[in-house]
Amino acid sequence: MQLGMKVRRHAGKGRGGFTLIEIMVVVIILGILAATIIPQFMSTTHDAKVSQAKSHIANYKSAIARFHLHFDRYPTNEEGLDVLVEPPQGEEKQWRGPYIEMVRLDPWGNPYQYRTPGTRGSKTYDLWSQGADGEDGGEGKNADIGSWQK
Fold it and tell me: What is the dotted CATH code of the domain comprising 2-146?
């Protein structure tokens, strides 16, 4: 019977949990992994937003070209991009839109900017997103994304 008791004691000792040091080592390793991986995802998120802004601008450029074909002019600064969704007043018969489904905000939640005549690249019009900072100009992640870029 004593032999059985020893076996039980031995089996009971093997059932212990993790030590505090083991848990701390795992937490430290997870922290190091998170510190190296999270910045990569943040960069990927920014790149995805830039790509989305470029795609929106390409769609707007196509819609503006169709509008120009029908009206032989570009939307005025007052009409802006809204004229691609709703006909200009007094020219409803000539309008063959909507040229786009809706006027979208840029990926950072700001309206796209439109100006005619353009001052950058093409002299017809400028169309741009003000980037992450929501202000004209900027560098890096805050750089503008415009119709004059490829």
Answer: 3.30.700.10
